[in-house]
Amino acid sequence: MLAVRSLQLGYGAIVAVRGIDLDVGAGELVAVIGANGAGKTTSLRGIAGALPARTGSIVFDGEDITGLPVHQRVARGMSLVPEGRGIFARLTVAENLDMGAYLRRDAAGVRADLERSYALFPRLGERRRQLAGTLSGGEQQMLAIARALMGRPRLLLLDEPSMGLAPLVTRLIFDTIRSIAAERVSILLIEQNARAALELASRAYVLEGGRVTLAGPSADLLSSEAVRKAYLGE
Amino acid sequence: MLGSIYALVALGYTMVYGILGLINFAHGEVVMIGSMIAISVVVTIGTGSGLPGPVVVLAGVGIAIPACMLLGALLERVAYRPLRDAPRLTALITAIGMSIVLQNLAMIVWGRQYISFPPLLPSEPHAVLGATVTGTQVIIVMLTLALMGALLLLIHRTRLGRAMRATSQSPALAGLMGVDVNRIILFTFMIGSALAAVAGVMIAGYYGQAHYHMGFMLGLKAFTAAVLGGIGNVSGAMLGGLALGVIESLGAGYIGALTGGFLGSHYQDVFAFAVLILVLVFRPSGLLGERVAERA
Ligand SMILES: Nc1ncnc2c1ncn2[C@@H]1O[C@H](COP(=O)(O)OP(=O)(O)OP(=O)(O)O)[C@@H](O)[C@H]1O
Ligand SMILES: [Mg+2]
To answer: How far is B205 from chain A (nearest CA, A)?
Structure first.
């Protein structure tokens, strides 16, 4: 589904991601963990096309998309839920969800999915006419995820969906991610909460200083000495 | 009357500012070029064609609009897009540069003299509610209101308008929704320029003449109107334009009395800039502008 090879990314003189290899299979849930500043967000933005690749390649569904602009990657079935709840604060909840379906032409399907979003997150349904900027942090994260699903993506890129959320909301978000994965949507999940991410994902990568330093099945990483020490606080 | 023209021009400033954070100082020149093109068309087919006056003017409008849209698109594509990530000051200086380029271009094409708009539109006065208005004035106001209504519908009720609002809040995020941000920006310039073309024809019809330098003062006043309404806010630009028109005409009427006859009504331009300064000092966010906190 997704194959990233020797991808290098940066900002001006800064090289933030120094050649990573990363794969996500069809219907697979893969996690990326790493400390602050390791290059997790940068990698995800590079995959989504929000940041141009310096070198390396990104292949999606057999097609080399390395040079494609972000909106054309969305058209091919990728969707990024950005770090820190990127919602349109001055659009209503319903308008935000409509933006998620921007490229879809099947009005009836979009309407049905809108109702599904409200069924999934009833709090969004109650607030559909409200400006998204007035939602609580947890509700904004729900909106960002629901909006990404409105595009019916085949690959969902999630950047720290639990950041700054209360435990109860975090649980709700993780349950949602699990049920999205159960519908065979491929997911690449970035998380600070390494334990939760490893328990959810089948495989994971550890990113340090812009490089992949460990990779493998989540179960192996969960029992690895190095991971337990550095990321599970043991 | 002038207020509706200011409003149409102010919309172009405010829509571009809303998306790019750029004050497109060349916008007044787009209005001027709209005037010039419309007059050229009207003069070419006008006299002796036997067509009714309004039809001839309509032909002028019909050619000025696409011409100005093309011009707006060119400005965006050639002058501003390469500077998208440059410091704001660079883009601002480029905008002023483009304004000078267009003025000089117009001077070369149409000359330095005033060129006059043939009297093809109804100019006999009617008494309406105690005021004297001409048919042309009525047309200007009605057309402005219709265009504003259409624009509000576009922005608030269509998929394209939603994409425009999303892009103005965050281009990066809009891109992640699959919006082709470059196209939306180009389109915004084109809509603003189409309105500018209509305003250009109106002002040529209103004053009966046009001049290569007319875009400068008009642009400044429309910019003032946009700031008065709250720059970046579409309804604000409409309100600001109409309000500035009223302030100016009231001001022109009373300035003699206020200064004991020292200043005459040709000092009416003073009011626009007094308004600009007062707004910038006391309420920089304008009448309908968002509070600064909301922008964060
Ligand atoms: N817009 C930017 N301009 C310059 N440098 C940046 C920019 N964004 C990130 N960086 C740098 O790139 C490196 C990687 O940042 P990135 O945001 O990818 O880390 P991260 O792993 O997502 O961290 P966190 O867990 O804190 O979200 C950091 O050193 C950061 O300072
Ligand atoms: Mg990050």
So the answer is: 39
In this structure, what token pair is assigned to residue A214? 């460990």
On whether ipTM exceeds 0.90, the answer is yes
- Give per-residue pLDDT as tens, A1-34: 999 999 999 999 999 999 999 999 999 999 999 9
pLDDT tens-digit map of A51-67 = 999 999 999 999 999 99
* Residue to test with chain A: of B176, B233, B292, most A Cβ within 10 A: B176
Note the pLDDT tens digit of each residue in B85-136: 889 899 999 999 999 999 999 999 999 999 988 877 777 777 777 777 888 8
Residue numbers of A between 62 and 91 with CB closer than 8 Å to B: 69-71, 74-75, 79-80, 82, 86-91
Residues 6+ apart with CB under 8 A from B174: A99, B163, B166, B167, B181, B184
Q: What is the DSSP string of A10-53?
A: EETTEEEEEEEEEEE-TT-EEEEEE-TTSSHHHHHHHHHTSS--
Contact by Cβ (8 Å): A132, A96: yes
- Looking only at the bridges linking them, the beta strands covering A155-159 and A186-190 are parallel
User: How is domain A1-67+156-161+188-234 classified at the architecture level of CATH?
Assistant: 3-Layer(aba) Sandwich (3.40)
Partners of residue A206 on adjacent β-strands: A33, A214
Give the CA distances from residue B208 to residues B8, B36, B200, in Å, rounded to whole numbers and listed in that order: 19, 12, 11
Domain spans of chain B, in order of start: 2-120+132-213
N-term to C-term CA, chain A: 35
Q: Whose CA is nearest to atom 4 of ligand 1?
A: A11
* Mean pLDDT, chain B, whole residue set: 89
Gap from B24 CA to chain A (nearest CA, Å):
24
Q: Give B228's contacts (C-beta < 8 A, 6+ positions apart).
A: B236, B240, B243, B244, B275, B276, B279, B286, B287
For a mutational test of ligand 1's pocket, the pick from A40, A159, A212, i.e. the residue with the most ligand atoms closer than 8 A to its C-beta, is A40
What is the CA angle A195-A200-A201, rounded to 5? 100
pTM to 2 decimals?
0.91
Angle at A13 between CA A10 and CA A19, to 5 degrees: 35
- Cα–Cα separations (whole angstroms), residue B49 to B38, B60, B224: 16, 14, 41
Could you give the angle at which helices B88-110 and B214-229 cross, rounded to 10 degrees?
140
Instruction: Select the residue of A82, A86, A151 nearest B178 (Cβ to Cβ).
Output: A151
Q: B183 to chain A nearest CA, in Å?
A: 11
Chain A residue numbers touching B175 (CB-CB < 8 A): 50, 69-71, 74
DSSP annotation of B81 reads: G
For chain B, the residue count is: 296
At B128, phi and psi to the nearest 5?
-125, 120
Q: Which residues of B touch A102 (CB under 8 A)?
A: 159, 163, 177-179
Q: Are A91 and B162 inside 8 Å of each other by CB?
A: yes
Residue for token pair 């006043």 = B221
